[in-house]
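Fold it.
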Amino acid sequence: MAKSRRGRGGGESVVETVAGGVAELRPDRDRPRARTLLIDGAPQSYVDLDDPAYLDFSYQRRLGHVADLAAPPGRPLQAVHLGGGALTLARYVAATRPRSTQQVVEIDTPLVQLVRRELPLESGWRIRVRGGDAREGLAKVPDGWADLIIADVFGGARTPAHLTSTEFVADVRRALRPDGCYAANIADGPPLRFLRGQIATVRTAFPELCLTADPAVLRGKRFGNAVLVAADRPLPVAELTRRAASDPQTGRVEHGRALLDFTGGAAPVTDATAVASPAPPPEVFD
């Protein structure tokens, strides 16, 4: 059962129980048709129906930079989104690259129903939303189909273990075109063991990697999100660095020898050894 309550922006918040907890779509006082999706009080996604190319969260802007540089400007993409949330990145790609064909895999079917009812997709957008586990959904993507695969999967604010292994990354590589690009949203905090292990894991499938995040996160000063980008081809590191530096929340990009040093000899993880990402400390959402 959905409930409404007055939001801080003067509109109505919509609160509904979904598979992953209690979802709230909270209005924004500055943008009349914008909503933040929270699950159990933790911010998950932000959507502005009037401006789907607007990305409010810093990690989503960094994923947006990757989508911008995945192909020449304006060229349609074939994209796979593992984890849907409020479908923010799928909306972004549809708005910035018309005629793109996208698949979204989201395990929380009641959440998808809530989002599609309250934040409907525009007609004409080629976005197919599948219910189910992200890894099972990825296995259904044809070999070499995707220009871009984005992994942004969290359950209870943690990435499930089976989406962090060399076997999972190998299937990502299978589904990508030879010049395709993979981007993963990774959450971690000091001492960054999980993030370092994920870099080593992704390196088993892709020769070209870079990492972009808030400098404080990379220095192990606080918990936060980092976006790991990987491909078989050289990455647009210079342009990603420029965009990260000019972002409202300034980011840093590590690659090459600096990224190898950052990884610090961490070992890849397999299905047999993988663990979920660490839970964020409570103060992260205060």
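Confidence is low (pLDDT under 50) at residues 6-10.
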